[in-house]
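Batch manifest, entry 17 of 40.
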Amino acid sequence: MEVVVAPKLLLSGELRGPGWVQLEGATVVASGWGEPPHAATVELPRGALVPGLIDLQLNGAFGHDLATTDLAGWREVVRRLPATGVTAFVPTFITAPLEGLARSLERYRRVRDDLDAEPGARTLGVHCEGPFLAAGRHGAHRRDLLCDPTPERVETLLAAADGQLAYLTLAPELPGGLPAVDRLVRAGVRVAVGHSDATDQHVTAAVDAGVSMVTHLFNAQRPLHHRDPGVVGAALADPRVTVGLIVDLHHVAPTAVRVAFAAAGERIALVTDAVSAMGMPPGVHELGGEPTTVRAGAPPVRDDGTLAGSVLRLDEAVANAVHCGVDPAVALTAASRVPADALGRSDLGRLTPGARADVAWLDDDWRAAATWIDGRLAHVDEHRASDVHGLRPFPERP
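Output type: structure tokens
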């Protein structure tokens, strides 16, 4: 049994303290504010104890593009992500030739069992962002590879994923868009609107058909106009959808961040949309097998200057949101419980009894200082935790 005490605890959407969480094996068995019922085994001198962060959109990190990397690359990503407070994530594969996407999905299926055994962040199935996207909103996706969601193409991806497709982003206004939404949802796949020129009426029809998410709000989608609310207006107004938001302060301006949270704060999921350049020095990296360039202090871009993902850490996204004026409890919930709920994972993203023992200690600047996954210490920042007694790796399970 481990009892971790901190000055603040995020519990059921509230951030206050002092608070504590009791872990037994891979499960949270108790949590609360005030004095714990048992002696603390770890006392944190500052910062907050929060559920492990969950990234719904990660293309790559640490030099590895998840659409093309091998098992060694996957292992490095899952082992190093806890240093950012992330305990679970959805690997994202962007537009590619259909057969290439199918190969990426099959490759993920082959490595998933190995990854589940790794002492690192868990994967939660795959997100396919494309190829069923609007040509006029293609962003960093190759326009020549975009196509309509015909039944045959949808079945190809479903067969390749074999139950491992968590969600798929598409433009519902494309020919066959609404039938594709229906087929995907019936197959157990969640659907997001993204890279879309849909009107608000078309988005509403897509939500009626089963869409439950919107991919990176404001970016590569029909914007908000008072007589043409578009994808953005529909996303902010419809309580049925979870809305992804990239708060790297390049994709979305601080005022727009505040607008999004003011309109739909309980439905905003902070995402990174990070590419292989995350955690790496500036230079040329990959996104979807194509080059993307990162310069110091700037986001990744294609050769024509188009934004191509980010180098954002999810704990940094929380810090940025707070800097923009978002309440810390709301920002933290947007990086934990909201994404968990979007995937139907009531066992993740919270510190209530029965949840998985995925926990992050964030320092006063909201950067990860330590991370537990399934009750085992997966990361300790030696500099930030140098004054903490009792912060030690838990014994490996037999």
